[in-house]
Specification:
Mean pLDDT: 87
Structural class: mainly alpha
Distance between the termini: 68 Å
Helix content: over 70%
Largest sheet: none
Number of strands: 0
Low-confidence stretches: none
Radius of gyration: 27 Å
Length: 130
């Protein structure tokens, strides 16, 4: 015979177990729906999404991929044109910040900017390889 004490333990255990199951299921479903933050969509990914939304015919798919590729190339050309201006602004900003710092602080700031530049260079190299 089950006593009230045993019923209470059983109820708490079942509630806890259901909470774990629901929480784990929710986490799994959420992780499946979201793309990784840093993952950029390819032209094919975008074309596939447009196809799902608008039901494209094969000729339209090819043309849309061509248009998207051309647009990406134009954006890359613009980035390359503006990159020197961004670099000038970045260097001028760093100089202004550096002028405020003590010699000891400048060492830390210089180390930080070198690390930042290395990350930027790595990111740009990865972007070009895609």
């Amino acid at each position: 015979m089950i006593t009230n004490k045993h019923k209470a333990y059983l109820l708490v255990s079942i509630t806890f177990l259901l909470g774990v199951i629901v929480g784990a299921s929710g986490q799994y479903l959420l992780s499946q729906r979201q793309a990784p933050i840093n993952q950029k969509k390819t032209v094919s990914d975008i074309t596939r999404e447009i196809d799902q939304a608008a039901h494209l015919d094969p000729t339209q798919k090819v043309r849309i991929e061509e248009i998207m590729t051309d647009g990406n190339q134009q954006c890359e050309n613009l980035r390359n044109q503006l990159r020197p201006q961004y670099s000038e602004i970045r260097l001028a900003t760093r100089k202004r910040i550096r002028d405020l710092l003590s010699d000891e602080q400048k060492n830390g700031f210089d180390r930080w900017t070198r690390e930042l530049d290395a990350k930027r260079a790595k990111s740009e190299a990865e972007e070009k390889n895609k």
